Model the fold of this input.
Amino acid sequence: MSDLDLADQVTRQLLALTRLVKRSEAAPDEPMCLPLLAMLAEDGPFRAGEIAAVLGVNPSTVSRQVAGLIRSGLVERRADPEDGRVSPLAVTAAGRRILDLGRRRRAAQFGDALAGWSPEARARFADLLGCFVRDLRQAGSLPAK
Done:
């Protein structure tokens, strides 16, 4: 298989996976901003401008999403002890509960999808996917976070 064919095939599969994940995140009990919430929980707190830079999106888009998460009580602004002019954003306990519910639902979905796979194949798949994402980042194709 040529590099061009490989890139086409991987791109098609990643797009299909992205659509499936987005559809699954559209559950009525979860906010549409789940990826932003997860980023804050895993790597935060962040200022809104930092989030926009990492995600490569317009700051106004992040501001709208953050405002919705704050209104929902899933994210809060915190005082920055080093610079009182900025307010880093952090996930609240309610936000962590939403993330945990989503995590458990995905685990059930993935478990169902991979039910016919051996434990070794499941582990190998997760390892290879992780290696691919890491190497793609190192090649300069994806943001670091």
Notes: The chain has one domain: 3-113. Residues 3-113 form a domain with the Arc Repressor Mutant, subunit A fold (CATH 1.10.10.10). The mean pLDDT is 85.
